[in-house]
Amino acid sequence: MNDESSSRERRRAWAVFTTVIAIFAWLVIRDAWLCDDAFITFRVVDNFHNDFGLRWNVIDRVQVFTHPLWCFLLVALGWLFGNLPLAAIWFSVLMSVAAFLLIVPRPGRENWDLVLLALLIPASKAVVQFGTSGLEGPLAYLLLVLLILAGGGLNSSWHRNDRWVPLLSAAIVLTRPDLILIVAPFCIAWVTRKGFRRAAVSIAAGTAVFAIWEIFSFIYYGILFPNTALAKLYTGLPFLEGALQGLRYIADFVLRDPAGVVGLVTCVLLLMFRRDDLQARAVCAGILLYLLFIVAIGGDFMSGRFFAVPVFLAVAEAIRTNGEGTRPLADSFPGASAAAIILVVIHFFGFNGFVAANISRNGIADERRVYAPALSLAAVHDGSPIQRVSWVRAAQELGKTGPAVMRAIAVGVVGYYGGPNVHVLDINAIGDPLLSRLPARSESRIGHFERRIPLGYEDSLQSESLVIEDLDLREYCQVVWSVTRGPVWSASRIGESNRLITGGYSLLLDNYLSRSGDWLREPGPPALPPPDATIEMLFLPEEPENLPAD
After folding, report:
1. Terminal CA-to-CA distance of the chain, rounded, Å?
2. For residues 406 and 426, what is the distance between their CA atoms, to the nearest angstrom?
3. Strand, helix or coil at 549?
4. Where are the alpha helices (DSSP H) in 376-490?
5. Is 0.90 topped by the overall pTM?
6. pLDDT tens digits for 466-495?
7. Is there a contact between 62 and 226 (Cβ–Cβ < 8 Å)?
8. Where do runs of H (alpha helix) occur along 258-410?
9. Any transmembrane segments, and where (predicted)?
């Protein structure tokens, strides 16, 4: 090939590469948004900046977030840029694009099929939507890509990048604890191949990072795991009922994001049958383990959220595997790159799956469609749409009058815009240390496990003195409050934390449940929003002075 044709070929290859990156970046920016749950962490960050500590309600030390590392990054963003919601969106875009840029093969060899295969990532609605949202998704994308690149195929020789594997694994678990199911098979395979003695120092460093957070969590919050785990996993609801909902969650993913399903299934099959690559099989095992976990816990109310990371990782590892393997992808899966092109074009022009409803009858919602009228990138940049939401306005007015208690279901924007004077009584128990330890009402919506308020508990919050009617529950709440409200470095408080974790006060709770358990589990009134619900339904009329003139 002469120099001119070679130069033309390189320019064409770089044009394709740049176009693939630009498509992903454009789709992430086009669909950029924030969900209500993101504002739960935003409120913690805001309280921290205002010297209240890492707290949701300023009186209680309760860990309401499941992503410590993401929370600390948001703390830094808030300090640097001030407008935390807007900064979180753009930082998420940056991390998502960086992660994608790392996995798309550079031009310069016969790898057109792999470059085009990367389009399976922007073809997925879930991957694109949760490339922002204000949650930890983009950080998980980036760290998992760095992990598989550091692994380098898990060959037996030691490389300088291997020392980063335990640290990256710890960072991924601190990004979201349940991602340990994805990285565990990879780490086991890595230790097996490298040898424990050779990897001991790196393992110690990664373990230390995770241990530091757990020690902090125990001392500061009085518990080793987020309060959300109590609120969403220890509900008292039957396992089979949750597993059935988990299968519905998979069905919802198939209907709302068929391109994501194609990408996930295709790449998992590719990894599963690459017997000559230990890393491919380890990544595949982690993804399958994580999918089983999703079913077991009943999935989530956010459509596609728990599938975004598996899709991104499966495609990324498929590209790495075939880039370093001996067989080109096209020989194994004819037409895969062509299918990727078709799928991303369909997504590019607005295909939104086969479900018209924003919220299905199973309680699973296309959260972006629900919140975009007030929390899309354009709306957040404007700042005025969220101020028209009746919940937000009510919380702001309540916050101006002084300390007050406000019941809420969608607690994120209410808590963030209400400010520290508003104690949000979260009936779904994510931010409440007592309610999270009580069983949920039956027939609760997935991800919204509503609790009944024990008699006298709301009055106790108003007065900050315990007036709960049931004596056993009152004593139990006194212990919980001593852990969440007592002096951090008190030896007696740390002792109470340990006894609470190990079940030392379970008898008090059991006595209360023996009398009131049936009452607590009674189903509530139908709480599922209408299928076409959006936050725009909560908009208050515009103020007359803001209306355009005739």
Report:
1. 68
2. 8
3. coil
4. 377-382, 390-400, 411-418, 457-463, 471-485
5. yes
6. 999 999 999 999 999 999 999 999 999 999
7. no
8. 258-272, 278-296, 305-324, 329-332, 336-348, 367-375, 377-382, 390-400
9. 12-29, 139-158, 164-191, 203-223, 253-273, 280-299, 336-359
